[in-house]
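Memo to structure team: turn this sequence into structure tokens by end of day. - J.P.
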Amino acid sequence: MIILTLITLVLAVPAYWLTLRYNMHMFQLNGYKDKEQFDWIKKNFHMQWILVFSMAWGFASMLVMGLSQSRVLWGICCAVIWLTLAVIIIVYRLLREMNSKKPLVFTPRVKRMVACIIIIALLMLLIPYFAGRIKSGAIVNFGPFSGFLLWLVGSQIFMNISANDINSPIENGINKHYINDAKRILAENPDLTIIGVTGSYGKTSVKFYLETLLRAKYSVLVTPESYNTPMGVVKTIRGSLRRTHEIFVCEMGARYVGEIKELCDLVHPKHGIIASIGPQHLDTFESIANIQMTKFELGDSIPEGGMLFLNGDNEYINEHLDYLKKSGADLPPAYKEPVMYHAGGSDRGYYASDIELTAHGTRFTAHSPDGESCTYDMKLVGGHNIINVMGAIAVAHEMGIALKDLRIPVRRLKSVPHRMEMKNQGAVTIIDDAFNSNPIGSKAAVETLAMFDGMRILITPGMVELGEEEAEYNRKFGTYAASCCDYILLVGGKHTDPIREGALSEGFPEKKCMRFDRVEEAIDYAYGIKTRNDEHKYILLENDLPDNYQ
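Reply from structure team:
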């Protein structure tokens, strides 16, 4: 029996680590939130059913091997335990290789949770019932131990949630210390101008465009990458803010009502820009009204003398602003005269005109409320890029930079990685919009694709986190794509079935609407499509589902 148990142990150790690591990775992608992890487990039960089976068979084996002395029953139990552990090792090694878009980061928090999980396991191993029956200080029955090891491996599907709850007092204390330290640093820089940037989409692009334009006159710090959570902002302040910085552009993200207010209470922005509002993260927000209320928490925090910049082309922003003004409530000062900006179709506030696609990008003329205007050339393409650049121009001009002094900075603007990023590869141009996952942005992306002269190919796995209307939004996306693309290559099935349905309903050729299991297969197929007369190919990579949505 000792030999049988040692065989189980040899298989259980790698299986334990692989399942712990995978579920910790998913928990990190789900923001360390118990509810989102539970919801993810329910939606993706088909991927981890073997862990639930492991818990059930492990518990049954503990009972059988603890109560019975039958060698046949013990042999059957051990055989199933070994087979299950072997399958787990194979499956979770494959999952680890597949889930590499945003790998697990062993942050101090993750290390503390892993340590907690291992300590729990070691403590449970000491329980006499699970380790075996103890008699005269010696373990005489190792049978239940093998079953317990299998149960322990299966329990990793939920163990990270337990560790998170156990560690929560420690994590809250650590976070509070870091937050207070960040507040202290900000208080020591009273002359620092803080600009908050939020939106359902486009906020990261606006943030980096602002950085480029404002540097024409100021020393600027921005939150890096997509650091838009309280601890991401705190990390930026504690690690990067210097006394020489004059402006801090702070990206603010949210998945729940109140999270923008939490960020505003941390940094106290003087100015704010709401780049967009749209149906994104509806799984957590539950309604557009909640999204509108959350994004406008930034406007609520702007003090007297501060400015609120609003995307005047966004219907949800205009709708909520009208609602606030008609409500009769005592509104914060920023709502009385917000600075509006437009990408066309309006001659109020800041607006763009004479927009044209050139061989090198886009040319347009920007107009300011004081009558000043200037024509710009930039490498970026797409209407959504124009509106985002107009927002950055509006802020920079209101901060004292003349429009003409922004010509060179605008020309220097680069695509934010994976956001309509152009990658020329000889006869093929890749338009990488992989970080986009919202209905408005996806529609704008395929409409931009339609503007190019050549073969236009869309590759997409569909959109997620859109709540109960997710299928309908994906279906509409298919109808838009049908009139803009020559080929529609779909990745996966769950989120792409509605896209295919929408495209075919518009008469799109079925033989040009194909499905693939992996994005690499779709890209290989796109490269292999034959063209006429050396026609240039434009391949739009629209959205790339994160690992926890594969």
